[in-house]
Amino acid sequence: MRAARLVHPVLLMAVHVAPVAIARTLPEVQAMVESKASGALSAAEALTRETPNDANAWVMLTRARMQARQSEKAVVSAEKAAALGPKNPQAFYWLGNAYGNRIGQVGMLSKMTMAPKLRDAFEQAAKLDPALIDARSSLVEFYLQAPGAIGGGIDKARAQATAIAKYDRAQGLRSQARIAMHEKNWPQALKHREVAHVVKPGDARIRIQLILPYQASKRWADANAAIKRWMGEEPNSNTAQYQMGRLAALSGLYLVEGEAALRKYLAMPRGKDDQEPKNARYRLGQVLIHADRKDEAKVELQAALKLDPKFKDARDALAAL
């Protein structure tokens, strides 16, 4: 009788501890994608393998691919999502986004072919879910930018803005402001934003879209009042802190508040949409220049350049000292 073959203990251990892929549910993958978590793409890919006929799984893969800058693959997965979910508004909304993400990377002939597909996807999303404001807002942008030959037109944009206002007055006003900007009617755009802020004062997007024009038009007192109100209501808002610093850097006013806000901003955890630290260092350098603290300004500008040696604004400011 042949002796039984012995298995080396290390190999036996390896068999038992071999890593197993963790199966994730759709809500778990969605949370990973929305937080731009590491591993979101691989999790979304695994989800489509586990549930190949679920349109929502392919939507998650589309979003993850877009985040990973895989624009061509994102179109493929988005088309799959729409095919599997002909009555799924999110599938068509993200199909439109995938086309929009890809269209800037293709030649003119391909653009002319893809643009109607983009329009049709957003229109279908809005048809399936009339309250899907994101799809309607995307249509406003398409209608403003596209030539009439492929379905553009300012009247169509206005119709979408009116429809948006039925579901969310503040967002409807934002769309009207966008149309006014397209027409270069800056006072009207600002008026729409001011009313939108009254309607929905806690909306961060509306706040910032009001503050930036105030700064651009040197309405420093109005910008300061809006930012101070924001900081009072949301003292831990990174964006509010940064905008106070930016206001001081641009205006040469509110220097004490601006410096404190930027230093607080740099000490706060940075969100995915927040300004990079190099920008905060540069703005802090500007504030210190206004305060005639040039040695300290040099330190901040040098710190900004250390973070990004190609940062032209910081380099120019440093050279001017």
Summarize the structure.
74% of the residues lie in helices and 0% in strands.
Note down, in words, how this protein is organized.
By secondary structure, the chain is mostly helical. It is 74% helix and 0% strand. The chain contains 18 helices and no strands. The protein has helices spanning 9-17, 26-34, 40-50, 55-67, 71-84, 89-103, 108-128, 133-145, 154-167, 169-182, 186-199, 204-216, 220-233, 238-251, 255-267, 277-290, 294-307, 312-320. Mean pLDDT is 92; it is low at 1-21.
Q: What are the low-pLDDT stretches, counting only 5+ consecutive residues below 50? A: 1-21
Radius of gyration: 25 Å
Largest sheet: none
* Fraction of helical residues: over 70%
Overall form: globular
Name the helix and strand elements from N-terminus to C-terminus, one letter apiece: HHHHHHHHHHHHHHHHHH
N→C terminal distance = 91 Å
Mean pLDDT: 92
Write down how many β-strands occur, each being a DSSP E stretch of 2 or more residues: 0
Write the layout of secondary structure elements.
Blueprint: H1 9-17, H2 26-34, H3 40-50, H4 55-67, H5 71-84, H6 89-103, H7 108-128, H8 133-145, H9 154-167, H10 169-182, H11 186-199, H12 204-216, H13 220-233, H14 238-251, H15 255-267, H16 277-290, H17 294-307, H18 312-320
Defining key terms:
disordered N terminus; mainly alpha; 321 residues; 74% helix; 18 helices; single chain
